[in-house]
UniProtKB/TrEMBL annotation:
This is UDP-N-acetylmuramoyl-tripeptide--D-alanyl-D-alanine ligase. GO terms for biological process: cell division; cell wall organization; peptidoglycan biosynthetic process; regulation of cell shape. InterPro entries: Mur-like_cat_sf, Mur_ligase_C, Mur_ligase_C_dom_sf, Mur_ligase_cen, MurCDEF_CellWall_CoF430Synth, MurE/MurF_N, UDP-N-AcMur_synth. Its EC number is 6.3.2.10. The gene is murF. The keyword Cell cycle applies. It is an enzyme of class 6 (ligase). The lineage of its organism: Bacteria, Pseudomonadati, Pseudomonadota, Alphaproteobacteria, Rhodobacterales. It comes from the Bacteria. Pathway: Cell wall biogenesis; peptidoglycan biosynthesis. HAMAP family: MurF (MF_02019). It is found in: Cytoplasm. Belongs to the MurCDEF family. MurF subfamily. Residues 335-454 form the Mur ligase C-terminal domain.
Length: 480
C-alpha cells in the first residue's frame, strides 16, 4: 500500500522530487530498510548521506537527500530537500494532518514505552492501530512515527520523551493528540532540571498540544499531581485521574502478584471490576488503569480493552520474564530471568525490586540447595549531582530485605554496593565486561535473577550471557 507518492512527499516537505516513485514506508536505518521504503538520510552520530549508496542497492523508492544532491546519482529518483530533519518534521506534520485517526500521546519519567505497548494491545481488534516503534520518542522519533502513519489509521499511539527543558511541547503540538497521558514523574534527567517540580512542568507541556476538547489522563498519586492538573486545566482539557488514591476516577483497590501475572480489583466509572495483566508488578496494573481511561477517551470499547489487557506482557528489556534452561538433560535445571535492562531510575528500580522480592524460588535443584533472589544492577544515569546518594539510598528499599545477593556494575552503583550489608554484597565491578566471564558462577538453577540498569550501563550484555547458559524458553511454556 502506497504511503507517500513522490508528488505528495515533495509537497509535504517543500522539496523537489526527482523521478516518479511511490513509498510504502519511511526508514532512517539501512540495516532495517525494506524495498519500498523512503530512506531519510538524517545527520546524527553518522551522516545518513554516507549510506545513500547502500540504500539505493535495496531498490526503489529513493532516499531523501539534503545539501548534497550529488550523493544520489542523477539517473536515480530521489527527494532533494534543504535540510533533512526539518523536512522529516514537515512530512510528519503532513502525515498527522491527512488522517482522521484518534490520537493518544504518552509521556512520563517511567513506563512510557511499556504503557504505549499496553495501549496498542488494548486497542487491538478495534480498528487500524498505528504506534511508535521501540522507544521512538524524541525529536526525530515522533515525526518519523507520524510520517509512517497510514492515512486510514483509526487509532494512533505516540510516545513523547525528553532529556532537557523545552523538548515536549513542540512534539506534542506536532502530534496534536486527542488524549494525553502522563504515567508518572520521578527523579530522572536531574542533570538538566533543578528538581522534580521542573520535570513535572516539562512533562505537563504535553497538554499544550491537545486538540480542542481533549482529555488529560494523569497519575493522581504524585506529590506533583497538582502541577499536572493545573497545566491540564490551563489547556482546557477534561481530566481523568488514575492510581491508588481515593480521589482518582480510576482507582486500584487491590493488586496481587502471581506467577506470570498481576490480578486485582479496581473501581472504574464508579463500577467495581476485576483486572489482570499477564506480567508481574503492581506498577503495570496502575498504568493499566490509565490505559483503559485513554482507550475510552479515544472512542474504543472499554470492555474489549480490559479483556485485551489480560494477555498483555511488556516488551523485551522492560520487565519481561523468561525461563533459562541450564541443563536440558536434567529436569528442573532452570532459572527465572527478569530482563529489565533498558532503563533505570530510583522509581523504576524500586518497582522492579518489589517484583523480584515477590518471586518464588525453587530449592534443591542447583549447586546451592536453596534458590535465591539475585539482583544484577547497573548504573542509573542522568540523575544529576546527587547521583551517588540516590544509588546508595536504594539499600534502604523495603524489597532489599528479600534478596539474597546484589551484584553491582558501574562506578555509580559502587555507592549502593558500599551501602549494602556485607552478607548481601555480591560482586562490585566497574565494567560489565568484568562480570560476563563469571556469569555461570553468579547464578544457579532455582534462582530468580533480575538484571536492571540504564541502557548506557550495558547490563543487557549480562542478560545475553545468562541466556547463553542454556536454551531460552518463555516462562509461560510449562510442560504438561
Amino acid at each position: 500500500m502506497t504511503l507517500w507518492t513522490a508528488a505528495d512527499a515533495a509537497a509535504a516537505t517543500g522539496g523537489r522530487a526527482r523521478g516518479d516513485w511511490n513509498a510504502d514506508g519511511v526508514s532512517i536505518d539501512t540495516r532495517t530498510l525494506k524495498p519500498g521504503d523512503l530512506f531519510v538520510a538524517l545527520e546524527a552520530a553518522r551522516d545518513g548521506h554516507d549510506f545513500v549508496a547502500q540504500a539505493l542497492e535495496k531498490g526503489p523508492p529513493p532516499p531523501s537527500s539534503a545539501a548534497y544532491p550529488t550523493t544520489c546519482p542523477k539517473t536515480r529518483p530521489c527527494l532533494i530537500v534543504d535540510a533533512v530533519l526539518p523536512a522529516l518534521e514537515r512530512l510528519g506534520i503532513a502525515g498527522r494532518a491527512r488522517t482522521g485517526a484518534r490520537i493518544a500521546a504518552i509521556t512520563g519519567s517511567v513506563g512510557k514505552t511499556s504503557t504505549k505497548e499496553m495501549l496498542r494491545a488494548a486497542l487491538e481488534g478495534q480498528g487500524r492501530v498505528h504506534a511508535a516503534e521501540a522507544s521512538y520518542n524524541n525529536h526525530w522519533g515522533v515525526p518519523l512515527t507520524l510520517a509512517r502513519m497510514p492515512a486510514d489509521t483509526d487509532f494512533a499511539v505516540i510516545e513523547i520523551g525528553m532529556n532537557h527543558p523545552g523538548e515536549i511541547a513542540p512534539l506534542a503540538r506536532m502530534s496534536r493528540p486527542h488524549v494525553a497521558m502522563i504515567t508518572t514523574v520521578a527523579a530522572v534527567h536531574l542533570e538538566a532540571f533543578e528538581n522534580v517540580e521542573g520535570i513535572a512542568q516539562e512533562k505537563a507541556a504535553i497538554f499544550e498540544g491537545l486538540e480542542p476538547g481533549g482529555c488529560a489522563v494523569i497519575n493522581g498519586d504524585l506529590a506533583v499531581s497538582p502541577i499536572l492538573r493545573a497545566s491540564a486545566r490551563a489547556a482546557g482539557a477534561k481530566i481523568i485521574g488514575f492510581g491508588g488514591g481515593v480521589s482518582n476516577h480510576h482507582r486500584l483497590r487491590e493488586a496481587h502478584v502471581r506467577e506470570g501475572a498481576t490480578v486485582g480489583k479496581a473501581r472504574l466509572w464508579r463500577t467495581d471490576i476485576m483486572l489482570k495483566v499477564a506480567t508481574e508488578g503492581r506498577h503495570f496494573m496502575v498504568n493499566a488503569l490509565g490505559v483503559i481511561a485513554v482507550a475510552q477517551a479515544m472512542g474504543a470499547d472499554r470492555a474489549r480493552a480490559i479483556c485485551n489487557l489480560s494477555a498483555w506482557a511488556p516488551p523485551a528489556g522492560r520487565g519481561t520474564r523468561e525461563t533459562v534452561v541450564i541443563d536440558p538433560a536434567r529436569d528442573g535445571e532452570t532459572l527465572e530471568l527478569i530482563d529489565d535492562s533498558f532503563n533505570a531510575n530510583p522509581t523504576s528500580l524500586s518497582a522492579s525490586l518489589a517484583v523480584l522480592a515477590a518471586a518464588r524460588t525453587r530449592d534443591g535443584v542447583g549447586r546451592v540447595h536453596r534458590g535465591r533472589r539475585i539482583a544484577i544492577l547497573g548504573d542509573m544515569l542522568e540523575l544529576g549531582p546527587r547521583e551517588r546518594g540516590m544509588h546508595a539510598e536504594m539499600a534502604n528499599d523495603p524489597a532489599m530485605a528479600a534478596l539474597r545477593t546484589v551484584h553491582c556494575v558501574g562506578p555509580r552503583m559502587r555507592a549502593l554496593h558500599d551501602a549494602l550489608p556485607e552478607a548481601q554484597r555480591g560482586r562490585g565491578s566497574e565494567r560489565v565486561e568484568e562480570l560476563i566471564p563469571e556469569t555461570a558462577r553468579l547464578v544457579d538453577s532455582g534462582d530468580v535473577v533480575l538484571v536492571k540498569g540504564s541502557k548506557g550501563s550495558h547490563v543487557s550484555r549480562l542478560v545475553d550471557a545468562i541466556r547463553k547458559l542454556g536454551q531460552r524458553r518463555p516462562s509461560g511454556d510449562k510442560e504438561a
